[in-house]
Design a protein that fits this description.
Elements (H helix, E strand, L loop, with lengths): L3 E3 L9 E2 L8 E4 L5 E4 L13 E6 L8 E11 L4 E9 L11 E3 L6 E8 L3 E10 L6 E11 L4
Protein name: MAM domain-containing protein
Length: 151
């Protein structure tokens, strides 16, 4: 069984969903070709409490040992907001823990990799929050799940 990779060139892949947020990810054409996901700036008077949420299912076929979850991200602008990563453990309470990773700025595309223990994790959440009156870009691309720990 191979890797799961989503470049968003054809929209969301079937193991990724966007729900429960009050902002939404939009697929945007990249100048270099292909597409990536973007969270638009808040419109005048718009408020966001829940942010834009991208839920990534840890597909049961892959539940054998560790997996490497990776994604590319771009955050630019003064106080653009925050991009965070959460995991949800298997079990009854079905809640996400505190953020495993967080970014509030940077320059250019960066890649983040996190090793997941798939026997205990069933979902990963990428959440983008926008602040009122803050400009800049929050972009995500190339979400990948691959067997084995990250290198």
């Amino acid at each position: 069984f191979g890797d799961l990779h989503c470049s968003f060139d054809r929209g969301l892949c079937d193991w990724i969903s966007d729900r429960e947020g009050d902002l939404h990810w939009e697929a945007v054409d990249s100048p270099a070709g292909g597409r990536y996901l973007s969270v638009p700036e808040l419109k005048a008077g718009q408020r966001s409490n829940r942010g834009a949420r991208l839920a990534i299912d840890i597909v049961p076929l892959l539940n054998q040992g560790d997996m490497c979850f990776s994604f590319s991200h771009w955050l630019t602008g003064h106080h653009v907001g925050v991009l965070q990563m959460f995991i949800r453990k298997k079990g009854r309470d079905q809640r996400y823990g505190s953020a495993l990773w967080s970014r509030t700025g940077g320059h250019g595309w960066r890649q983040t990799q996190v090793t997941l223990e798939t026997h205990s994790v069933d979902k990963v959440l990428l959440k983008a929050e926008r602040r009122i009156g803050r400009r800049g870009q929050i972009l995500v691309d190339d979400v990948t799940l691959r067997q084995g720990a990250c290198l």
